[in-house]
Design goal:
Blueprint: E1 3-4, E2 19-26, E3 33-37, E4 44-50, E5 56-61, E6 68-72, E7 75-83, H1 88-92, E8 103-105, H2 106-110, H3 112-123, H4 127-142, H5 149-162, H6 168-175, H7 179-189, H8 194-210, H9 216-223, H10 228-239, H11 243-249
Antiparallel strand pairs: 1-2, 2-7, 3-6, 4-5, 4-7, 5-8
Helix pairs in contact: 3-4, 5-6, 5-7, 5-8, 8-9
Length: 269
């Protein structure tokens, strides 16, 4: 089991407007670092230091249309910040659609600033120092965020879809725009289309519900699927596994969007 800190205090970052959650992971020496990243419409920034602490990198992970499951040895520590949907342009300086299903070095996005941040994080002596340096780097970007009309539209649509609206056409109607206009704004600012985002919302609901129930027919209905067959088809297409196989692999635990977690304290490095 990995030692993991609970989600950190976002007000301490001074960026709660843009950052959804922050997680830090430090696997015991010699143990592999496992990551399950399910489709959720989020873009993330993550820092990883390899064993010894002198090598590592900072990457941007774009929104996923399919799950990514990785296991890597030699990882000393990892910090992951997930951004709220719709903030890729002001925080990163690139359209979210350019990052979809990609993991790219921050240096490729920020240039010299990304390279310098990586060096600072590798030299950091504590988790608090790592978080302070990341927060200051993001604050420079978010000091005067670019509030575009399309960004505002996409974020309003996100709230409706996550709030229970299941039809993209219904969202477009409520926002007073065409479905085509909404798709364009969503792709630029979130990285996937509104239908793909709604699909990810359903998947996330089903995964959460399955943590406490094995009634797949009820889960399918409550999560917004047409029926159980619809749910199974989405699991296979988005995760590459049936619902039963996914949770059997997870040992009966729900691993949602974040590195595998426990409630043990994270060691200071």
């Amino acid at each position: 089991m990995m030692n993991v800190a609970a989600a950190m205090d976002l007000p301490a970052l001074a960026l709660p407007r843009f950052v959804e959650d922050v997680h830090a992971v430090a696997p015991p020496p010699g143990q592999a670092f496992d990551l399950e990243w399910l489709p959720d419409g989020r873009t993330a920034l993550f820092f990883r230091a390899l064993t010894g602490g002198r090598e590592g990198g900072v990457w941007v992970a774009g929104p996923r249309t399919r799950a990514i499951i990785k296991s890597k040895t030699g990882v000393a520590r990892t910090v992951v910040l997930r951004f709220k949907p719709g903030w890729s342009v002001p925080l990163l300086g690139v359209a979210a659609g350019e990052l979809t299903d990609r993991i790219v070095p921050l240096e490729d996005v920020w240039g010299r600033a990304g390279r310098e941040l990586c060096g600072e994080l590798l030299a950091a002596r504590s988790r608090a120092d790592v978080m302070d340096r990341i927060a200051r780097a993001l604050a420079l970007r978010a000091g005067k965020p670019l509030e575009t009309a399309s960004g505002q539209l996409a974020r309003r649509a996100v709230r409706l879809l996550e709030g229970g609206e299941v039809r993209v056409e219904g969202v477009a109607d409520r926002l007073g725009v065409t479905a085509r206009h909404l798709r364009r704004a969503f792709t630029e600012n979130v990285g996937i289309g509104p239908k793909e985002f709604a699909r990810a919302v359903r998947l996330q609901r089903a995964v959460r519900m399955a943590a406490t129930s094995c009634d797949w027919a009820r889960i399918a209905a409550d999560a917004g699927y047409y029926d159980q067959a619809h749910l199974i088809a989405d699991f296979r297409q988005l995760l590459g596994l049936t619902p039963g196989a996914f949770f059997k692999r997870a040992g009966g635990r729900t691993k949602r969007l974040k590195p595998i977690a426990s409630d043990l304290p994270l060691p200071v490095w």
